[in-house]
Amino acid sequence: MTKDVLVAISGLQIADADADKDAQPIEVINSGEYYLKNGKHYIIFDEVMEGFDGVTKNRIKIDGDYLELKKNGVSNVHMIFEKNKKNITCYETPYGNIMMGINANRFDLNETEQNISLDVDYTLDINYQSYAECKIQIRVTSKTEGDFTLS
Fold it and tell me: Is the whole-model pTM more than 0.85?
């Protein structure tokens, strides 16, 4: 994969089983940089939050059944998604801090020479209370590849 990549992240939260059919994913696409170091994938990109000055720097690390997301800037968080393990973190937002529990129960990582595709299903706790069943899709594609889709 080339250093210059496109990063697409799609997230879906289902707080109520009946709401599944009405749930809409949140999707963002950014330019970023990709590195492979010691068998681990690193993706770095900047994110702009609407209505706020400054950027949030994002770093994603993928290693087998392990996903780490660090955000520094307007929002700050260090999220860890490990299969069948619950991780607790504090998410610092412009609106206040939120305690989050993340318990990943499915990892589906697919790699080719020009693409990385990761699907993670997880349960989310907010302030120590069960909140939602969630899905996150991460698609990383070399900018030179040209065929870029979220699905």
Answer: yes
